[in-house]
Amino acid sequence: MTASLHLLAPAKINLSLDVLGRRDDGYHMVEMVLQTIGLCDSINLEARSDGQIQVHCAHPFVPAGQENLAYKTASMLREISGNSSLGATITIVKSIPVAAGLGGGSADAAAVLKGLNFLWDLNLSSDQLAEAALKLGADIPFCLMGGTALARGIGEKLTPLPPAPKLWVVLLKPNVGVSTAEVYKKYDDSAVQRRPDTSRLVAALAAGSLDGIATAMANVLESVTLPRLPVLRHLKQKAMEFGALAALMSGSGPTIFALAPDYRRADAIYNGLRHQVEFAHITTFKEVPLK
Q: Is 12 an annotated catalytic residue?
């Protein structure tokens, strides 16, 4: 059994997010185009043989014990293995902002799933890992796969898409918080002014049409979050003024991302807005999910 492993866990953005309905169990049916980006958490895994699972993270808002999603992931994987002596020390170094709509917790969980499957010699298939991932969270199956994908259902029905054209991404997260559960609870279909054109977006991504990508993107959850947090609308407007191809909220927010065709324009957006937010970062699309 290999003793340790280091992994990168990349964030994701929603190039589109549409809500198609609600299931009887309360989960919303969605249709989204998801994209991994180059901003990554760092995950270090050390195998143990004493059955203990320990999680270390210096970030003040990341729990270190059994409430941590990485802990729950390791615990579930050990249960699947049937070997109670399997253990791990998990060290997470956060670069992805917490509760930002960028899938940081899900990315960390995906890295732990892949990493411990290797360290513990479990030999679970990709399908088995994805099945386990869905029990932990709807975003985790995509984080396992990475790249560019169309997600349906509650986010678990994934169709890989051809690699998107290279675009620069400027992330802008103000010092505000949102609850994903509350955003979906308050979602009202009649309040949506603009929906994504998902089929057009998929075609534009495949064709490398930057204008097509920009005009097809939309996130219906903005209809809930933007009226409650006017700073997000301001950031979107200013990003466009500084030359963004498109600017959109990722997930349920509060991060706004702006797309730029080159570094010069991304840098202009970043420098124009970085003093107005808690977190600002320039990155690009990332096609390799974990390495």
A: yes
